[in-house]
Amino acid sequence: MAPSKTKHAKQACVIPGGFTVLSLQFSTDSVAQHKICVKEHRVRAEKTTQRPLDRTLFVLNIPPYCSEGVIKELFSQFGPVQSVELREKPGSFEHSGPKLAKYFTPAQKQGFRVGYIVFQKAISITAVKSHPHDVPLVVSTEQRPVWTGLQKWIHQYKQSFAQPDKLQEAVDTFMQDYDKRKEEEAERQKEEAEEQLEDEEGWVKVTRGKSGTKTRPHSEVSNQKALQKESRKRKRKELMNFYTWQHRNTQKEHIAELRKKFEEDKQRIALLRAQRKFRPY
């Protein structure tokens, strides 16, 4: 007896490699569907809190019209989403410093991308992997419309104009964070300089550090002082071959020494010829 089609209609589609295939449909009126592959993100070498191993979903073949906000809204039906990260190709998490405002970030390349979705609960990963293959995820709905084509270009064009008050606010916020980081860096260097005191003879005073930290006898300040001390020693030494006449005399002495050795070798060869013991080979 042939198996019933309705029995397998609500099953998830798992392909080799452990990926689960999900169907994307741009809108309810669309006929074509797009396929994405999802898999639980488990990389032992990556020990970062931004991608916890038990709550991170790795997604392949994300279409260009899906932004981070669209992906977050799309997968929120499986559980609350903590963060979404879209990249051009898979890779480890890289902290690129403070997050800049949209006015100072370059435009991203348009194309299919990969994504890392972090859920707040681990059970959401199981819900995504068990989603039926024949039930597509609708991207654009009346509640969350997604613009494409001419409407998207018009929206991007309008958003490209920066309002002076918002731009000034973003600049002020960035400069405040920059000044704060500079003050913290200067304070840290000052503390290191005070902890690692070096006297004139080159001895380093090792002091007790804070609880849970290791003292570093060779700090950046002490290394700079040691380099300065070595440069002063080299300056005190006599400068050799500094003047042109010194260099010329050195060359003359070297040539005279070579000529002397050449004459000695000629005399030794002549003596061997006279004694009939000359063996050139």
UniProtKB/TrEMBL annotation:
MF terms per GO, please?
Answer: RNA binding
What stretches pass through the bilayer? Answer: none
The name under which this protein is listed is Ribosomal RNA processing 7 homolog A
Compositional bias, Basic residues, is annotated for 207-216
Residue ranges under compositional bias (Polar residues)? 217-226
One of the GO BP terms on file: ribosomal small subunit assembly
Q: Which PANTHER family does the record match to this protein?
A: RIBOSOMAL RNA PROCESSING PROTEIN 7-RELATED, RIBOSOMAL RNA-PROCESSING PROTEIN 7 HOMOLOG A-RELATED
Gene Ontology annotations for the cellular component aspect, listed alphabetically:
CURI complex; UTP-C complex
Basic and acidic residues bias (residue ranges): 179-191
